[in-house]
Each structure stands twice: as structure tokens, then as C-alpha cells.
Amino acid sequence: MRKHIANCFTLLNLVFGCLAVIYILDGFGNASLNNMYFASIFICCAAVVDFLDGLIARLLNAASELGKQLDSLADLVSFGVAPGLIIFQFLKISIARNHPEFAENIWRLLPALLVPCAGAFRLARFNLSKSKSLNFEGMPIPAAGIFVASLPVIYSFNHFDFVETLLQNGVFWYGVIFVVSFLMISTLPMMSMKFKNLAFKQNWPKFLLVVITVLLVISLKWLAVPIVFLLYVLLSLITLSKEK
């Protein structure tokens, strides 16, 4: 019975992911930025629940192979499919605004599907991995999904002209597709935010990331998310390069 408590949280992760997809597709005919804002909120809710299901499983000593597989399936929807569709819609909007002659060209939109494909590959490799390292091999799909989900929220509350211009630029979104997909399928070492102990010498990159994140969130709100994402990647590569 205990293991199913954690599994219920995992399924709630999936529910939030499905709600995100529903909101995105509701604006499919006339891509709605407001819909994508709410989709992003649901993805963030999925991230919170995704954290809680692992925590509950550890606290109840109820980790199971079924829970592991459920978690991956839920993560694929919440942090792979839903973010991929967000990119699809933003690409559609940017092409319609900047190159209306290509607005009906589906081939310019299909690259967005590389994100869920890369996420599926990342999750399958993770499930088969026998590594005992606390750190990750490649970007964890929740981190990639949260990064993409932050962009519609930033767009909705943005006060900087250059940010609005950037998020309406198709080249920017193709760059997001490439970077996010590459990081997920790569074997680059990525830092886990789990703490085995509180020793500063062993955990200084994590402490540094936490402190900078708090300061950035206070000062920049949602705009802090992509900055923290880049900082997380850089700190991981710098501090974990010797493990490769």
C-alpha cells in the first residue's frame, strides 16, 4: 500500500502534463499565448509533484520498479511532449508574424518534436543505466522541461523589448530545440541537487547555485529561470568534467 502513495503522486504528475497539453492544443487553430501561459503553470506543478513522489518514496522506503517506470512515462508527457508543443506553437506564431508566406509550412514546425524524442531517449537510457553515481549523465528531462516552460511565462510578464523580440524570433526557438535536445541525449555530466551531506567542500557548487537562484528570483522573477539553467549547465561542466 505504501508504494502506491508515491505512485499516486507520479500519476498526478501525468495529470498535470496532460492538462498542459490540453491547454496548448486548445489554441492549436489560433495559437494562444494565454493558453501556453497556463500550460507552463501546469508543467511547473508537475515538477513539484515529481519532486514529491521521489521524496515520499524514500521516506516510506517504498521505491519500486513499477514506480520508476511510471515516473519516466509521466515525465515524458510533462517535461517532453508538453514543452515540445509549447515550442511548436511559439514557432508557429513567430513564423506567422515574421514570415507569413511560410505560415502553412509544417516542415518548419516539425523540429519542435525533437524535444520529446530526445527526452524519450534520455529517459530510456536512464532506466537502463547501472551507474551508481549521484550525478546525471546528460540533462535531466525535468530541468529541460522547466526551462522551456518558463519562456511563455517570461513572455507574459516581460517588461523588456529585447526579450519580447527574442521570443518572437524563430531562430531563437530553433536554438532552444538544438540546445535542449543535445543536452538531454549527450553524456555530459550534470550535477544532481541531492545532498549526501552538508559538507561545504563537497557541495559548494550546489550551495552556490541555490544562493544565486534565490537572489535572481527575487530580482528577476521568472526571467531568472533561463539564467539559472545556463548557470547549472556551466557549473556541472566545470565541476564534474574530471568524472568523465
Give a description of the structure.
There is one protein chain. This protein is an all-alpha fold and 244 residues long. The protein has a single domain, classed as Four Helix Bundle (Hemerythrin (Met), subunit A) (Up-down Bundle). The chain has nine helices and two strands; from the N terminus they run ααααβαααβαα. It has helices at residues 2-26, 33-59, 65-98, 114-128, 141-157, 161-167, 170-185, 200-220, 224-240, and strands spanning 136-137, 189-190. It has a two-stranded antiparallel ribbon with strand order 1-2. α1 packs parallel to α3, α3 (65-98) packs parallel to α5 (141-157) and α8 (200-220) packs antiparallel against α9 (224-240).
Key descriptive features of the protein:
single chain, 244 residues, mainly alpha, Four Helix Bundle (Hemerythrin (Met), subunit A), two-stranded antiparallel ribbon, 9 helices, globular
Give me the strand/helix succession: HHHHEHHHEHH
Class based on secondary structure composition and strand pairing: mainly alpha
Q: Helicity, in percent?
A: over 70%
Number of helices: 9
Enumerate the strands of the largest sheet in spatial order, edge to edge or round the barrel.
1-2
CATH topology: Four Helix Bundle (Hemerythrin (Met), subunit A)
How many independent structural domains? 1
Query: In this structure, how is the largest beta sheet organized?
Result: 2 strands, antiparallel
- Under the CATH scheme, which class? Mainly Alpha
